[in-house]
Amino acid sequence: MTQALRPTTGGSLFATDGKSHPLQDTLMVVTLALGLTAFITCFFGSLHLLASWAGLAGILTGAYGQWISETTRERFGLILGLGASGIGFFLGMANGGLFGGLL
Question: N or C: which end of the chain has fewer CB within 10 A?
Fold first, then answer.
């Protein structure tokens, strides 16, 4: 029971195993930021380029982050970012796509 009272001294806020995961934490934060950007900008038709590219980048970084993630907290943040990126990507594609009529 003494181990339940011992504080965890891990280097990462999101690591539940007590180890530092700087790459996984960075990918999670980047995926969340790209997902939030894609999700917000997808509701504006004139920002479809930003929404679709941010969504695509968020999907790719989130997929790689899921592949190398080690803790449940990292996976939870990645899933939130992936969902927002997916919505932003698909609505951005519906409004004009990745190239916006350039091709």
Answer: N
